[in-house]
Structure to design on (290 residues):
């Protein structure tokens, strides 16, 4: 099978849309369609359902998983050869939903290993899973579940309620979820961990949060809290990092109001020496002192 055809198939499988895949690959759509058709002919079975919207079928999903693993092995081999040729310095590719928790570990890593090239990627958890399978990244740090060959919890931190200065709850040491039933929340969109935690906390009390504003920038929610628009949720690291005058901090009386950070990686035999060093740096970092 042609390597280029397999790479193109993965893009079509991901997008499930020929014109978008063709635009990303910078090829003509008819040529891409012929490439997929040749693959299907070679395999002797369709890989996509074409009734209405193009969708990867069950056979296509099986083939996609094998192609991702095969191309991942080739990429791992290429990187191993490049690492050996460069004298062992190498590259590590690290993904995260947000890089605020990783600033300390990355700074320490670069100080200890200045010759190693560190490449960072901001991704959602579902994107991390695919990137790990296709060997586009070595490691990822996530606060939501990620299916990966290797995973370990590296830190659990308290999540606080941030309220505007002068708010009725400012100065309270702790508040119940029920007491927040009528508070407007400035929060991230569904799919990000703050929104997932907020929805879960309220559902656990048979309540629904009142959303005043939902955005894609977690850091911007802090500034909006300061304007008096509403309240929000932030982890302990944000309380240490954000300007103290921007909000008042209140504990939430719930045993699971926290954020769990987990480090996920490819299999050891596909990790470069540089990636293993970064994994150790993140795993062994003193998060409470950061």
């Amino acid at each position: 099978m042609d390597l280029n055809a397999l790479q193109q198939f993965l893009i079509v499988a991901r997008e499930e849309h020929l014109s978008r895949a063709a635009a990303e690959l910078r090829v003509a759509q008819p040529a891409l369609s012929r490439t997929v058709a040749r693959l299907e002919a070679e395999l002797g079975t369709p890989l996509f359902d074409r009734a209405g919207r193009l969708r990867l079928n069950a056979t296509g999903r099986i083939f996609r998983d094998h192609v991702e693993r095969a191309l991942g092995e080739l990429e791992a081999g290429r990187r191993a050869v490049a690492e050996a040729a460069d004298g062992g310095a190498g590259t590590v590719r690290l993904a995260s939903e947000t890089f605020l928790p990783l600033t300390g570990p990355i700074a320490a890593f670069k100080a200890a290993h200045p010759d190693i090239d560190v490449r960072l990627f901001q991704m959602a958890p579902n994107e991390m899973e695919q990137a790990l399978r296709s060997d586009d990244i070595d490691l990822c740090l996530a606060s939501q579940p990620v299916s990966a060959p290797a995973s370990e919890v590296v830190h659990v931190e308290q999540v606080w309620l941030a309220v505007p200065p002068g708010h009725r709850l400012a100065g309270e040491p702790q508040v119940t979820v029920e007491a927040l039933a009528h508070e407007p929340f400035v929060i991230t969109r569904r799919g990000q961990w703050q929104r997932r935690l907020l929805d879960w906390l309220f559902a656990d009390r048979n309540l629904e949060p009142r959303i005043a504003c939902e955005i894609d920038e977690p850091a911007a929610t802090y500034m909006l809290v300061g304007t008096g628009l509403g309240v929000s949720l932030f982890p302990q690291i944000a309380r240490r990092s954000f300007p103290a005058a921007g909000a008042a901090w209140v504990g939430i009386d719930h045993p699971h109001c926290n954020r769990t950070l987990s480090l996920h990686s490819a299999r050891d035999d596909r990790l470069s020496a540089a990636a293993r060093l970064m994994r150790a740096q993140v795993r062994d970092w003193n998060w409470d002192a950061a």
